[in-house]
Amino acid sequence: MNAFLDLTSLIFLVIAVVIFWRLRNVLGTRTGNEKPPFDPFAGRKPDAIEPPPAGDNVVTLPREGRPDPREAVLARIDEVAPAGHANSGLKAIVAVDRNFDLDAFLGGARAAYEMIVSAFAAGDRDTLKPLLSREVFDGFSGVLAAREARGEKIDFTFVGIDRADVVDAGVENGMEQVTVRFSSQLISVTRGRDGSVVEGDPQKVAEVTDVWTFAREARSSDPNWKLVATDAGD
């Protein structure tokens, strides 16, 4: 009788191991290396010193030989915006946002610019919506609706960005704002219902200047910036 029970237990154990192994192969395991959704503004954050737990009598000292990351950020601001309102405005942002990194922001702004102008040309509202403020999205949607009503389509090729310069910055009513002047090259041709060219030249690379303002809440845990204002550059 005991031998029968031991044999039965062994059979169930083998079945359990086989089921576990198959589930593991089918479902996989989390490695910690899964990629998050793409965020154009998700650049590398400067190293921050975490505060000690509440109630601990600990004083955190800077690590010997490692410069204060905020000093490096401020020095970079002096390089990119050496004087004027943009310089003081960027430093005001650093004062309220310890994670602000100018190079990471500009990299994200470049990526966002290409995504937005390409999505606008394609009439892709789903891509535009999370990148724009409500007011800017409504304005873009109105232009797209008028284009669709006329039966027009755009042939668009994004060539590249020549420059992306910070021209203004600051903190207002708890909102960080950075204004960037983009100098880009692109080919854009508007075609009518019959395919004829309404505007643009398919053989010409146009040089375009846009002045865009991005903003985010200074105290928000959401790192995303949104386009809140657009203007044609000089």
What does this molecule look like?
Strands 1, 2, 3, 4 and 5 form a five-stranded antiparallel β-sheet that branches. β4 (206-217) and β5 form a beta hairpin. The longest helix is centred in the first third of the chain and has 26 residues, at 2-27. α2 packs antiparallel against α3 (85-96). The protein has a single domain, classed as Nuclear Transport Factor 2, Chain: A. The relative contact order is 0.12. The chain is α+β, with helices and mostly antiparallel strands and 234 residues long. It is 39% helix and 25% strand.
Helices and strands, with pairings:
Elements: H1 2-27, H2 69-80, H3 85-96, H4 102-122, H5 125-128, H6 134-150, E1 153-172, E2 175-191, E3 197-199, E4 206-217, E5 226-232
